[in-house]
Structures are given as C-alpha cells and as structure tokens.
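Please check this today:
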Amino acid sequence: MKIFQQSLDLKPRRRGFHIITYDVIDAIPQLSELKTGICQVFIQHTSASLSINENADPTVRQDFEMYFNKAVPERDPDYRHDDEGSDDMPAHIKAAMLGCSVTIPVRNGILALGTWQGIYLCEHRNHGGQRRLVITAWGE
C-alpha cells in the first residue's frame, strides 16, 4: 500500500462554483503510481465546500449559485452569527449542505471521474480569499 498526501493552496476566487479538477491532479502527481486506489480531497474551511458535478456546461455552475442563494438567503433576521458580514452565516450553511470533502476512485493512475464530472470549489463568500485543500491518495 502506498499513501501520498499534499496540501494545495488555491488562489482566491470570486463567489461561485469553480472547476478545480486539474489543480488537484497537478498537485499530486504521485497518482500515476497507483493502479487501484482512492483519492480524498478535503477543504480546510467552513465557508467554502467541495462537490463533484457537471464539468462541461458553465450554466450548470451558474444555476448552482442561483439555487443556493435562493435556498439560503443573506440578511435573514434570524441569523445570530453575523460578525463577518451578511454572506458569512449563509456561507457556513451552504458549506454544511455540500460538505468538506470528495472521494474519488483512482484507476490506472488517474482519477476515475465520469466523462462529464469535475471537482468543484464552491466558494460561498464574496471575498473568501485563498483556500487550502489537503489531498490524500492511497492504494496499490
């Protein structure tokens, strides 16, 4: 069994859903050493999240942003946590809904994503800043 781990600092991105598949692949070239395995990508933040979804049509990512903004609106008077601005508490809720990690099979040295699948950084803050990922791959 081989185990590899790498941190990846992503450049700041605007609020929205961003494909980061190649950022992840480039950060852990040791994937090529695994015939069969697993790759976990974990985000070390509570106001951004990760997901796997459509990688071809950018309108899917726009619709995700629209949906989550409707489902979890800003400036809800019932929110108690608002120290960091009106986008902060909604960002925490959106991150909890989507999750902090994705797990992908590794087959013959590459991520076994489907044809139309990509890894999303889901940036829920207006100015979230740099985001850090921990990528762990293991297998044979």
Remarks:
- The radius of gyration is 16 Å.
- The chain has a mean pLDDT of 97.
- The domain at 30-49+56-74+83-140 is CATH 2.60.120.460 (Jelly Rolls).
